[in-house]
Amino acid sequence: MSLLPYLPFARPTLDEDTIAGVAEVLRSGWITTGPQVKNFEAALSHYLDGRPVRALNSATSALEVALQLCGIGPGAEVITPSQTFFAAPNMIAKVGATPVFVDVELISRNLDFDAVERAITPHTRAIMPTHFAGLPVDMDRLYAIARQHRLRVIEDAALAIGSSWRGRRIGSFGDLTVFSFHPNKNMTAIEGGALVVNDATEAREVEMLRFHGITRLSDGARDVTFPGGKFNLPDVNARIGSGQLARLDAFNARRRELVAEYFRLFPTTPSCLLPHPGYPGDEAGHSWNLFAPLLPLDRMTIDRQQFRAALEARGIGTGISYEAAHLTTLFRRYGHHEGELPNTERIARETVTLPLFPAMTYADVERVCQAVGEVLADGSLQ
Ligand SMILES: *Cc1c(COP(=O)(O)O)cnc(C)c1O
Fold first, then answer.
1. Is 4 within the bounds of a domain?
2. 230 given a catalytic annotation
3. Are 263 and 277 in contact (CB under 8 A)?
4. Is the pTM of this model over 0.85?
5. Which of 39, 130, 136, 175 could form a disulfide with 156 if both were Cys (CB 3.0 to 4.6 A apart)?
């Protein structure tokens, strides 16, 4: 229907230097974990003020390894938002612990820390917050609560590489931090993830957890002390990650420019609930992985599915970030039900993710805003 090229909601930006670099790795004779992973880990560590970083094959793997690193298993409770990607609650369940779902704030969509404090029990071992869309959670409050109750923190920063809190990058301070390099994130390795840890001992533990639990004996033979996973990142992917990291700050600056245009041009009737614009005076701390307004469904004659189909027909892709994890079939089996987490459930019903990626133009943003305005005008009560 649209004569304009299709506009997906996310698209990676890969440059020719990176593509040539990948070809070099492919020709080198060493394509799985090796020197490129070492380079990538060093570059990430440099970007994060020297903290130890280990690369893995996904953020989901990194979350699982982080939980194992903390010794979290059966009997433990881990506080997490339900308004997040399935990976965090899934991995908590996979290691045998219990996810304790806490509601988020409606606008920031980050954990409500008053509710976090109420959810702490003698079984709580960790808090696993998500920095939604690249907006950091209140890091001062998070770590004050963690210190007071002696809890580990595993930050799901899959959407927040390059974000900062009061001038300090997410991952450059705190406890454990997980990043994702999936193609929809702010930088990619096709697939990939990273885990930022506190010291060399934890880094060695991660190396074992990500690779079969193997240690080297002094005679050169190998030993296994626990059943580790197989979560290593190949060198081909690491080479892409290094090429992307070099451009990350520029990508994120471009995302902020595009979002400013979204805020300037977004249709006002009927009005969507727009995302949190970033903390006053610290707007550059938001890395804007997603631009996801909430639809005014109570004033619309079409539902979200029809809204998305109408944009799709205009050549504009959309997504949903996120469904409510506590209402999945999996976590209903844990006894969860509608009505537990009002903000989470409202966001899950009303959210729609609009196109945002660094290669977009201002004309693309204008096209999306115009299409949203038309679809809402056709499909609303007034
Ligand atoms: C994408 C994402 C993940 C999972 O990342 P993978 O690298 O695909 O495993 C986890 N948490 C959040 C918040 C995400 O957006």
1. no
2. no
3. yes
4. yes
5. 130
